[in-house]
Write a structure and sequence with these properties.
This protein is α/β, with parallel strands linked by helices and about 425 residues long. It folds into three domains: about 170 residues, NAD(P)-binding Rossmann-like Domain (Rossmann fold, 3-Layer(aba) Sandwich); about 160 residues, 2-Layer Sandwich (Dihydrodipicolinate Reductase, domain 2); about 80 residues, 2-Layer Sandwich (Alpha-Beta Plaits). It is about 35% helix and about 25% strand. A hairpin with a 2-residue loop joins strand 9 and strand 10. Helix 5 runs parallel beside helix 10 and helix 13 packs antiparallel against helix 14. It is elongated. The termini are far apart.
Length: about 425
């Protein structure tokens, strides 16, 4: 058998999982590839921690540069993370004619356009299945299985931390901060959870998926982002009364030559498959003109699920090496000269359905004032609920609207918040429900 040599940069959680699979499952992987895979180097600044792996003498080193410069290395797997050293080593590996595999969604979302062009010009593969959805094969599906389709939309739950927190608020009635603390204790959330709970991690993923689906440049800057930190048990309770659950969703849709790209808390019906994806699992619904709707579901993070996706990329590249066909499947699904800028709609330009919650004084005529201002901006109300009565204070008044434009919604809510009968800033949560008109 031909020998294909691999260098691993970074041996943290996922890097350790990659090394485990390459060593422990080497026989079955080699049989499937038709070549022997050799893990020649593992570079990490920490060479003392016991990772539960017995490396051969001299395999574990601290010099990443030695890996990318080694002429015997065919594939470099980047598991360092971040946007500094990881980018530099990836570019050096590409320059040296090596194929590169990464799970670095933040780097691809911000620098991917440059990195993919560099790989294409050098004639090497840059693979990244593990960057979106862990073991859920959404990259391969868009790039290969669905190439005969015009993709019309992608709606996904792509962050396990947020899904777990919302699940705890929904099922236990926990305040947001308590649910976050529990997620941190279980290791589902970082000490600084900002990237997850503020929707930033999810925005990286939908920016990458949009490029694959529509043949556009990766355009992270124009993705609208809103996190879950303001979601309350009260809003989750009202959502349930309307037949909805709240999830942090990534939403991308093709609209008359422009693209919607947004991440925010969203109400979806109980009977929507995504509504019932709980815990730390990821899922995404993709709609194509030929296949209709398909859903992928699986572990979105963790050592072994993510490592499994990295090994999938490794096997693909090994097969390409054996047949001398690097670049056979374009990294971003479209040929590089066919990728073009596509305008991304601002959030103000989208139209959808909305949930509003107002803290309104319990006085005659209040509801008509609020509905009147909404009507002035072309927003019609589909249903209303009022919880409790307090003659001397504010009560929650909640509404679900018909289809409305975001710009009009924001103008109306700004005016409503100035009313002397409204005690607090109105709450807005968007709704995705095909049954609403």
């Amino acid at each position: 058998m031909k020998e294909i040599k691999v260098g691993l940069l970074g041996c943290g959680t996922v890097g350790t999982g990659v090394a485990k699979l390459l060593l422990e499952n080497n026989e079955i992987i080699s049989k499937r590839v038709g070549a022997t895979l050799t893990l020649k180097w593992v570079a990490d600044l920490d060479t003392e921690t016991d990772r539960g792996i017995q490396f051969d003498d001299g395999v574990l080193i601290t010099e990443a540069q030695k890996v990318v410069d080694d002429p015997e290395i065919d594939i470099v797997i980047e598991m360092i993370g971040g946007e500094g050293a990881a980018k530099d080593f990836m570019l050096k590996a590409i320059e040296n004619g090596k194929h590169v595999i990464t799970a670095n969604k933040a780097l691809l979302a911000s620098q991917g356009n440059m990195l993919f062009k560099a790989a294409a010009l050098k004639g090497v593969d840059l693979a990244f299945e593990a960057a979106v959805g862990g073991c859920m094969p959404i990259i391969k599906s868009l790039r290969e299985s669905l190439v005969g389709n015009r993709i019309t939309s992608m709606i996904g739950k792509l962050n396990g931390t947020c899904n777990y927190i919302l699940y705890k608020i929904t099922d236990d009635g926990s305040p947001y901060q308590n649910a976050l603390s529990e997620a941190q204790l279980k290791g589902y959330a970082e000490a600084d959870p900002t990237l997850d709970v503020e929707g930033i991690d999810t925005s990286h993923k939908i920016a990458i998926l949009g490029a694959l689906a529509y043949g556009m440049e990766i355009n992270l800057a124009d993705v609208y982002i809103e996190g879950i930190s303001k979601i309350t048990p009260l809003d989750i309770e009202f959502a349930g009364q309307f037949g909805y659950r709240i999830k942090l969703l990534a939403i991308s849709k093709m609209r008359d030559g422009s693209v919607e790209a947004r991440v925010h808390p969203t109400m979806i019906p109980f009977d929507n498959l995504l509504s019932n994806v709980n815990g730390t699992v990821n899922a995404i619904m993709v709609s194509g003109d030929a296949v209709g709707d398909i859903m992928l579901y699986g572990r979105g993070a963790g050592m072994m699920p993510t490592a499994s996706a990295v090994i999938s990329d490794t096997v693909d590249i090994c097969r390409n090496i054996l047949t001398a066909t690097a670049g056979r499947v374009p990294a971003l699904s479209y040929q590089m000269d066919q990728i073009r800028p596509i305008p991304v709609l601002s959030i103000e330009e989208i139209s959808t359905h909305y949930y509003f919650r107002f803290a309104a004084l319990d006085r005659p005529g209040v509801l008509s004032k609020i509905s009147g201002l909404l009507g002035n901006h072309g927003i019609s109300i589909q249903s209303v609920q009022q919880k409790g009565r307090k003659t001397d204070g504010a009560v929650p008044v909640v509404m679900v609207t018909h289809l409305a434009k975001e710009a009009n919604v924001k103008k109306a809510l700004s005016e409503i918040s100035q009313l002397d009968v409204v005690a607090d800033t109105p709450v807005l949560i968007r709704i995705e429900d095909e049954k609403l008109d």
